[in-house]
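We emphasize that the prediction below concerns an isolated chain of 292 residues; any contacts that depend on oligomerization or on bound cofactors are therefore not represented. The input was used exactly as deposited, without trimming of termini.
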Amino acid sequence: MSWDSYHIFIHETNLHDVFLVEFFSKFIRKAEDNNLLDKYFYIRYWQGGPHIRFRFKKSGENDKYVIQELNKIFNEFNLEYDNPLVLKPEDYYRNHKFDGQPVKKEDLYWYDNRTIVNIPYKPEIDRYGGENVIGLSEDLFHISSKLSLLILEKIENNPNKKIIAALDLFSVAIQILEDKAKFNEIYSSFWAGHRNEKIDYPKLTHKLVDVYSSRYHYIKDNLNHIQYNEWYVNLKNILDDIVKNQTSYKVREQARISILASHIHMMNNRLGVYPHYESMIADVINQVIKKG
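Result of the prediction step, given as a token string:
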């Protein structure tokens, strides 16, 4: 069964968490309670204007009911937050980093604020190991989306708690690796170009290393008992299956590192942790491990 895909354009990025926690998560629970959804996942994205991408597989022929409910909660959101931002595409795109990659002018399309648009889902097949294993990553997208919504509800749009949650999930994820330092350095190097020149990263990193050290070791030593255990078990088992059967990478270890890094990045995306923090997150964990 194919994925349905809808892009929910909310140009006010400061309202993305509000929408996800106060409206979207309730919609998801209701849809699941009524057996309307088989699987779903979401990400935040920039192309066409700030928005949330919602992909789902329906249970049976229930897609029209899912969309009706989605439109209903979106209307409720728009009524409650009824002063929409007027954002011009030329202003938005002028200083955008575009995921660090060059973008063709024709790909800089635009959709109006507070609209829902049916746009087909195009999976990044090569990035996640090939056609025969993309479904496994999509299973993990679903599991990660469920967990991220629970985390967002708990942290209540607190940016400091978001960073701690991102550190937690990074800490959990790297426990499936033998060479953690190598992975941390690769991850940090990849995202270093997204750093924000206004942030004092050495100072913030030093502070977080002091604050987070004991928490890292607790997580590492108690994987079977922490709130992230189910995600850890699924991540480990699914990634093992992907690496064994993938066709995108010549070396299995390269596949493990690259695909794990993609899943960590997308988890940060779901939490609303911006790319300019991702290099620092890897640096903090690396220094915590070296500190012992």
